[in-house]
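Researcher: Please translate sequence to structure tokens.
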Amino acid sequence: MLFAFTFSFLISFSTVAYSDGYYVRMVYETSKAGTFMRSEEVYESGDYKVVIVSSPESFVWVKLKDKYYVGDSKVLVRTFQIKDLSDIAYEYIKSKKLDISKDGVYRFVEEFFSLEIFVVSGEIMRVVRKVADVTTTMYINKFPKQFDIKSLIGKYKLVDDTPLPEELYSLSKFFLWATTSEGKDFIRISGYDKEGKVLELEINKLAGEFKVGSYYVKLIRASEKVAKEIKNALRNY
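Model: Translation complete:
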């Protein structure tokens, strides 16, 4: 790494009811195909998060500790881990044990992507990620607002009705970020691990290195270190 510093169930849970932290995030993505903009409202309190995307399409995703749900109505269904650029930036800094406590612009370059993190008054205000010819920029504007995270999440019906064993969802923890695609008989998760290396795996019912319930996990591409960590995590299944 090169581093340059230039300046179907309704939930019930107990947590801190009110918290400051109302965010408006504008996300711009630029590539050879053009530029698009997405606007989000984000509410966070501890391990709970609600993200309301209003344009160019409308949908909502929710984080409940280590569970994630997504949907375009009041019904949200279980899904694999979702992260926005803010989550990715904090996760990267944490996993690399980096210090971004001073105001300025921090640039991190990995083999397949780069991150720029803009810090003002100790807060991350902008994150820029570049992968190949695609540049994604998130602007984070914070406005203090009192909200009840329990009431916000309680507006949605969170559906856990899924055939996948819980252990398969836990594979998300090995990714810094990833995208998920589904075929007739498989789910493929493609992205990067927390060391910045390519990580790609497939879940299917036919064959793979590991069997979890009636499913198999096939590692398509992984570093030796992460492959070993996944093997250890799935050893008992």
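Researcher: Any highlights?
Model: Residues 85-96 form the longest helix (12 residues).
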